[in-house]
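Example 4.3 (complexes with small molecules)
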Amino acid sequence: MKQQNKLKILNDPIYGFISIPNDAIFELIEHPYFQRLRRITQMGLSYLVYPGAHHTRFHHAIGCLHLMQRAVQVLRSKGIVIDDVEEDALYKAILLHDLGHGPFSHALENLIIQGISHEEISLLFMQDLNAQFNGSLTLAIKIFQGKYHRPFMLDLISSQLDMDRLDYLKRDSFYTGVAEGNINSQRLISMLNVVDDRLVVEEKALYSVENFLSGRRLMYWQVYLHKTGIGAEHLLQSVVQRVHELLDNGVTVDIPTTLQFFLSNKTIDRSQLLERFAAIDDTDIFTLLKSNQSHSDLVLRELCQMILNRQLLRIKFSNTPVPQKKLDKKIEKLKKSYKLNDKEASYFIFHGEISNSAYAKAKPILILNKKNKVVELTDAAKEPSFKALAKVVTKYYYCYPKIQD
Ligand SMILES: Nc1nc2c(ncn2[C@H]2C[C@H](O)[C@@H](COP(=O)(O)OP(=O)(O)OP(=O)(O)O)O2)c(=O)[nH]1
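Answer. The structure with 2'-deoxyguanosine-5'-triphosphate bound is encoded below.
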């Protein structure tokens, strides 16, 4: 049954009323590919740490559309020509930029489908929609691929100061309650400009840019790379890996029909990929966890129960790589306690490294200084605090079941 009344305004907890600019955008929002984003959590398993973090890619995409509307308005008010076709393409590209995220977003990226990023899958979805909507997404796709001759349009969608980051920091800060990420996206947008078709920020906003970058750094350490969240995501990845292994050994596993294509086949048939991918979301993974929490395989059963009941791992961080001896000791203890072999124990003990830098000079933020010259951010700002934002910080960790303490 098709809905008759077209809803043109959405109420967003962050920005208030968001208007949908035209019928074509409305049709895209109504499409099942986009509605699926209501069932893809924005921040993986971070809700196990921050209980409010249940927002989805749907909220984020609509928020990005709103910020893009503000950006177009600001740039036009400064005399930058953006014609109606370009405007429409910008809205479509930002709206659809995350269509390619799979269940639990980053937590399972590269595990459900290997060797293909969410950006590549977003592009496949856009191309498919372009065919369904008579070529009306052609310019949006060109901009998204960086093939349009006005690069500031891609900068608005994907750069170090894009609408994506401006929305997700503010939104994740709101839903987690971590105030440091609450950046002033309206102020930053109002300071945008375009010179030679590149996106720039006016010098007046230098300290707002610094605030935005340090807010992002903080959100990475405190939220996205939170130790408990990292451990939980390892457990979820272990579930998928264990299911693969059991299937390889001929053991029956209760898998939702929608996931069978991805978990039961050794090689993925590319011609069916999009249709199958469009059918999976977080709920299929939850079903997998719930259906196997009493499985006869101890490893799979324990992993499912640990996630569902939030019996997570202990994580230790250090500034140097974790010595193998330390890991071996943990592995031996786990093997002995649960009568596991090496392979089985490897599903519960992990080590790795995480890195974070607030600003990468390689894809610079450009500042329009008071002499009307365009300079790179750390050249425009002489304070050492700006240079420090470009520093890469790496931390090492290992995690193991708390029962071993
Ligand atoms: N829980 C969790 N969330 C993450 C992690 N990495 C990113 N996120 C969340 C934070 C944001 O809401 C969102 C950012 O990722 P996106 O796929 O939207 O953008 P992209 O990867 O292009 O981010 P970037 O432009 O590089 O900052 O995902 C992670 O490792 N764990």
